[in-house]
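hey team, just a heads up i'm posting the complex here instead of the shared drive bc the drive is being weird again. everything in one block, sequence lines first with there labels, then the predicted structure for the whole assembly after. its two chains so it's a bit long, scroll down
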Amino acid sequence: MKEVIAVRAGIATVVLMLMGGSVIHGIGSQAGSDAWLAIIFAALFSLPFILIYARLGDFDPEQDIFHTLEKALGKPLTVVVAIIYGYYALLLMYYSLDSLGNFVTVAGLVETPKVVPRLALTLIGLMAAKAGIEVLTRWCSLFLRIIMLTSFLALVLVLKEVDFSNLQPVLFDGIGPVLQATLTTMKFPFLETVLFTFAGAGFRIKNGSRYVLVRGHFAAAALILFIITLTVAVVGPEIYRIQYYPVYGAVSRIDVGGFFTRLEITVTFIFLITAFVKVSVCQIVAAKCFSYLVGETDYRRLVTPLALSGIVGSFYLAEGTLEMEKRNLSLWPPLELAVQVILPVIIWIIAEIRLNKQNDTGQKAN
Amino acid sequence: MLAAVGTMLVFIVVGVIEPFLWEKRRTATVIAYGVAMFITAVLTALYTMGIEPPKMILTNFVRDLFQKLKPGG
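-- predicted structure starts here --
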């Protein structure tokens, strides 16, 4: 059975999860001053896939997605899908931990051992994952307001630095860089929503997945667009391209009368909260997938070892900020392409054909 | 070395105590939990000894697998 969550709480979780990591990195930086255009395109082009993820979640609102997969694909293929998505969830968790670890090292605590921020986030995420998706989503619905308030505060204070001429001329380098930035922005963060389908949350309304994922997607896109556009307007396209953490750089310019300074703490706060949500969701999804493999109904039992693997697992991936940046700007590596685009589309087509056929047979028998 | 032994001990304590706190224990779940915990504990202990895992090992493994499975590859 699914854990039932409130619609607003689900939307808040999707928003915070998508913001995890993406607000701190310069997403769509290939497009330079047209990053805002790339984000809008990415949000729109991602919509069909979001609708597919939502449809997969809404096939059987009473049961989790593995039930739908079993009916559509059969048990052996569902096992393969569970392994792939479990692996992807673990990998995404490692990337998020790595991202946070590098950020902490670069942004302030230079001498702090790399393992400390990773350990802290892993343990907090583990506690949240143990509490379950229901508790996490309720927490998110509260903290989304705080995040929005913090972003708004930073906006008001940074307004003095905003120069909208940094966003012009539009499409100066042609459509190529914008399209490239659109594809990378779809991969990270928009289509990472696929994991939320596997988190196995049920909703209190009909077609709840569609309602939550679509609204969450657009709310996250609006927030990301707002933050990134302001960042480009403040730092300019050239610095936006070359800085690892341009949002952090933009907010660090806030200086109100020489008294109100060092407000980059707001960015750190937003990043910590959103990274925590992303890591927790990844831990829950990984635990759900691997629990399915061993036939365990309570996913919380496998959360501990999977979450703790993040401490050392994050060191498997990239050696530093430069490699992390390269990964963020890469154009759909095979695993991401498979789990975000190819597999959902194939599963959806098969599920539509098979499940509708099963429903027709059931109706005729009645 | 001391840190590695300490890490192993923490993992063993957590790995032994936690399953006993479950209301119902299934053999498959306990084995999966134990195996996952063991692998994590060994890798973490190696890391505390300064033996860092080779970077990109997971990603490269999957990439190689894809290339091997590719028709004619």
